[in-house]
Specification:
373 residues; alpha/beta; 2 domains; 7-stranded parallel sheet; 6-stranded parallel sheet; 40% helix; elongated
């Protein structure tokens, strides 16, 4: 049996279904998939465990933003690691694969999206990437980037990174009009002037900017409320706006509760660091109002300005951002067209398709290895 080990900082809730389906489908092809994680901090409170998941020693060097050195599993044929230069064990692994170590594949964005990276660090990242035997790219632009920097396209799998959209659609369909009415009444929500934020309540998401924008939106439209779905170390910034009524903090939600919050809103307000929330928004039919500030993840490429999202200049003020959100919610014809476009585009991203491409990538690597190429 071929043994594949995946090493991540931690197992987030949204990856559990992917791992379970990938394990099942790979087992049908004689491949045993196991997940190993370190002890990364989890202020977003979305860490999970599973019987096929093991913890490994994880040494932090230089604090939470510094480097990591993890003890990698030895009993495997293919080792899949993050495409991250701060993970010191990856350098050891790519060197060891020329001896007795397993082949190394990388999983990642392709290039740095959400953080500014100097030329030197970018060069190191691509140097390390080129020394892996396979690359699992989140999106097509990321794959194109590593190809442009010397990685063979024949050894790349494009995953089209996503969440379990089928489950989210089922949860959305299960929300009854009566349940939605009760949720709105219980939170003092307007049917037409409610927005939602979904994600980590932390610095990366520009929560301070978002709270200022919520205050401005409430000033422009007294019916406005922003639902905040998520947790993080900047949750304290929500308190003043909750007191004023412009914000309702709901904490982390999943399943039917998340679907109810999404169904109650008209748009999403995500000023920075769009990631997989782009898929949530498309699936729920919620256009995203955001800023073109170079903070976003690769999944932001799924969105089209004017069709499924509105992109404001990076330097826009909270007042300008708020005004755009209110104008979109007030323009029923434009909003209806954008919500319909979101639902159409969401069909391009499914967990089944992502699992299938991952499985085919692992099998393609195995075929090439057996052929000695």
């Amino acid at each position: 049996m071929t043994r594949v080990a995946v090493v991540w900082p931690y197992l987030p809730a949204y990856r559990v279904a992917f791992c379970e389906r990938a394990r099942r489908d790979l087992a049908d092809h004689g491949v045993d998939l196991r997940l190993y994680t370190g002890h990364a901090g989890n202020e977003r409170r979305d860490a999970r465990t599973a019987e096929w998941h093991q913890r490994i020693p994880d040494l932090h060097i230089g604090g939470s933003a510094g480097a990591h050195l993890r003890r990698l599993p030895r009993e495997c044929d293919l080792l899949i690691v993050e495409q991250a230069i701060k993970n010191l064990e990856s350098y050891i692994a790519v060197a060891a694969q020329h001896g007795a170590g397993p082949a190394v594949a990388m999983w990642g964005h392709g290039r740095s999206y959400s953080t500014l990276q100097g030329a030197g660090r970018a060069a190191v990242k691509q140097w390390l990437t080129r020394r892996s035997r396979w690359f699992f790219a989140y999106t097509r632009p990321g794959a194109d980037y590593v190809v442009a920097h010397g990685f063979p396209r024949t050894r790349i799998t494009v995953l089209n990174n996503t969440i379990d959209t089928e489950s989210l659609r089922a949860s959305l369909s299960a929300v009854t009009p009566a349940e939605l009415a009760r949720f709105r009444a219980g939170n003092g929500l307007s049917e037409s002037k409610t927005a939602v934020f979904v994600g980590g309540v932390d610095h990366a998401k520009d929560i301070r900017f978002l709270m200022q924008a919520a205050q401005e939106a409430r000033r422009l439209c007294p019916e406005f409320t922003l639902l905040v779905v998520g947790a993080g170390d900047e949750s304290v910034l929500l308190t003043p706006q909750q007191t004023s009524g412009s914000v309702r903090s709901l904490g982390r939600l999943e399943g039917k509760q998340l679907a109810t919050a999404l169904a109650s809103a008209r748009v999403m307000m995500i000023p920075s660091a769009i990631g997989l929330v782009a898929v949530d928004a498309l699936t729920a039919g919620l256009p995203i109002v955001t800023r073109d500030n170079l903070s976003h993840g690769p999944e932001a490429d799924y969105l089209v300005d004017g069709r499924t999202s509105r992109w404001l200049p990076a330097a826009c003020s909270p007042a300008e951002y708020a005004q755009e959100a209110i104008q979109l919610m007030s323009d029923s014809e434009r909003l209806s067209a954008m919500r319909a476009a979101c639902l159409i585009d969401s069909q391009d991203y499914s967990l089944d398709a992502m699992v299938e491409t991952f499985v085919q990538g692992v099998l393609a690597w195995s075929d090439i290895e057996r052929a000695g190429l």
